[in-house]
Amino acid sequence: MGQEFGGPLDFATVLHRMRPDLQRVEDRLLEETALEFPLIGDILRTLILAGGKRLRPLLLLLAAKPFRYDLDRLVPAAAGIELLHTASLIHDDSLDGASVRRGQPTLNALFDPSVVIMVGDYMFARSAMLAASTMNPRVLAVFAHCLGSICDGQLRELFAARRTDVSLDDYQHRIYGKTASLFAGSAEIGAILAEAPDDQIELLRDFGGAMGMAFQIVDDVLDFRATENEIGKPAGQDLRQGTVTLPILLFFQNGKATSEERAFVEQVIAEGAPDDDALARALQLIRTSGALEEALDYARRYVEDAKALLAGLPPTEGRDMLAAVADHALARRL
After folding, report:
1. For the chain, what are the domain ranges?
2. At a CB cut-off of 8 Å and minimum separation 6, what does 40 contact?
3. Which of 69, 144, 208, 221 could cross-link 183 (Cys pair, CB 3.0–4.6 Å)?
4. Which CATH architecture has domain 11-331?
């Protein structure tokens, strides 16, 4: 079980206490939308303002809390991490042909693909400039590694599309690159800038990685459970695009589906659903198979592993806050 600390602290309390510091990050992010192309700048501003809880910048700040917490040093890096995340979403939407993100029209829905790719590249460049402004070579190395891992994860997803022979190992590598690596890098950069000891920098990187794995698994479950209004994008998108996620893998493995049901879902993945009724049937088969609950058990174990790592940090409020954020990765489930 995960290590318990001196709380209780919940995620809402963490956000309340960190709000002034996160506002500094928010202000820095909005400065990056002041482009010479007002329409694109307005859309980027809308995307940034719809950016949710700012988990990655929050994780970066909290990783610094138990050590030398210097907000002036941390804010540019935190803003850079969020811009890197936003840029990756822009490219992801372009690759997927997605028209909605965070409840708003994507750039992909409004502009030619060449414009979208250039805007994404611009955001990657701005995020790198913010990372460089820390004047810390180690931070730049982590940032570059995160960027490479994100691209690796996206490539793995592209090449695995509509394949039904994806393994659990394949899936874990893909989601670590696409999602968890940025959580790991956020925590690592926060600890580096706060001058934490090397062993605790490594610990926080591992904490962020485990938390990020749980976050993505829950996200994959929500794709089956939630409505478009709740997740800000069309539900069932993974199955529609032939992307095999953990719930689909477990559906194939748990032995509860008949051979006919399994063959039907495999056909939807490999060939695409011929109509909405076929997609709805495939979604319902997976929902009622127990696969979603099994997937959440995987996420729960990642959260427990993440919280257990925190025992190696100084017993501070920052450590308690990190535990609450790890719990939130799981509590997002509906």
Report:
1. 11-331
2. 107, 111, 115, 119
3. 208
4. Orthogonal Bundle (1.10)
